[in-house]
Design goal:
- With 316 residues, the chain is α/β, with parallel strands linked by helices.
- It has a single domain (6-14, 44-94, 120-309), classed as UDP-N-acetylmuramoyl-L-alanine:D-glutamate ligase (3-Layer(aba) Sandwich).
- It is built from 9 helices and 13 strands.
- The chain has helices at residues 46-56, 71-83, 126-134, 145-157, 176-181, 195-205, 246-259, 264-278, 291-312, and strands spanning 6-11, 15-21, 39-43, 61-67, 87-91, 97-103, 109-113, 136-141, 160-164, 184-188, 210-214, 220-224, 227-231.
- Helix 3 packs across helix 4 (145-157) and helix 7 (246-259) runs antiparallel to helix 8.
- The longest helix is centred in the C-terminal third of the chain and has 22 residues, at 291-312.
- This is Sugar kinase.
- Pfam families: PfkB.
Length: 316
């Protein structure tokens, strides 16, 4: 049997964001605001950012999703074409997914997703999913409706799966098929009253070997083999300008480590380094940390830890 041609198959999450810079969040009611640097529209939603991040780290990446025959769809296709990321797009009758992101001066984001683009009947063709899965080592599944229907086909193909539940509240049943089918589950602590309880429930009810919960400036929490470990945040390499895409970058960095055979704690370190870099990228750009920069930054952190350890060991 030949080796897989694709390292990471990303399903779903292709779309376009309109970025609106606001003076503060929450935004007080007013008749109007004069804003700078202004309003811009660019391709890039969750699946796009995971694909971009994985590709930048040297992983052979392929993106599959439903995209409209519209201007926004052309922006998505152009992003992949310009970055050299293979894209298989299936026509989405309702049009390309869109969102408006309000971004404040501290880089915090509030996203407004246009829910009118998707339909209950939207599906990724089973034969296309099966063919791409058969050529892949791993699939990262975005929590959109067509991807939910593709989960059984991916599991039958025998490749490992990951998903990102984003700001799941721990109770919404919509997220459960994704959480229970994946080997690696990412999520945010933002809406969780008890993050550890939610993480353990994912493991108990599904097949996850690893659950990673990102916590912004507090770093992340990793559940492996029944033990929860805190992964401290790292200092970003430049000023923080936007948190958009940080969770997707964490996932890309983590998967880079996992597919290289690194242990989960090391994978999580890659994730927080990639996530910190993403926070320095303006919301109007789609960019990701490269492999050399990621490894160099991790080596710096290793060297710092080694120096600290040596300094604290008492002399004989």
């Amino acid at each position: 049997m030949s080796s897989p041609e694709i390292d990471v198959l990303v399903l779903g999450g292709a779309g376009v964001d309109t970025i609106v810079h606001v003076p503060e969040l929450p935004l007080p009611f007013a008749d109007s605001y004069m804003i700078r640097p202004g309003i811009e529209t660019r391709a890039g939603q969750s699946g796009d950012f995971v694909a971009l991040g994985a590709h930048a780290l040297g992983l052979r990446t392929h993106h599959l999703d439903m995209i409209g025959d519209d201007h926004e769809g052309e922006l998505v296709r152009a992003l992949h074409r310009d970055r050299g990321i293979p894209l298989t797009d299936v026509l989405q009758p309702g049009g390309t997914k869109r969102a408006v992101n309000l971004v404040d001066p501290q880089g915090r984001r509030l996203s407004l997703y246009d829910d009118s683009r998707s339909r209950e009947t939207d599906r990724l063709p089973e034969e296309t999913v099966r063919a791409l899965a058969g050529a892949s080592r791993h699939a990262h599944v975005v929590i959109t409706h067509p991807c939910s229907a593709a989960l059984p086909v991916l599991r039958e193909a025998g490749l490992t799966l990951s998903t990102d539940l984003h700001n799941w509240d721990g109770d919404n049943p919509y997220h459960e098929p994704f959480a229970h089918a994946a080997d690696v589950v990412f999520l945010s602590t933002t809406a969780l009253a008890d993050p550890e309880r939610a993480m353990r429930r994912i493991v108990e009810r599904g097949r996850a070997q690893v659950v990673a919960a990102t916590a912004g400036a507090d770093g992340a929490y990793l559940l492996v083999d029944g033990e929860v470990t805190h992964i401290p945040a790292v200092t970003p390499p430049a000023p923080v300008v936007d948190s958009n895409g940080a969770g997707d970058a964490f996932a890309s960095g983590f998967l880079f480590g996992r597919l290289a055979g690194e242990p989960p704690l090391r994978c999580a370190l890659y994730g927080v380094v990639a996530g910190a870099y993403a926070c320095t990228v303006p919301s109007t750009r789609a960019d990701a940390i490269g492999r050399d920069e990621l490894l160099a930054r991790v080596k710096e952190l290793d060297d710092q830890d080694a120096t600290t350890t040596t300094a604290t060991v008492p002399s004989a």
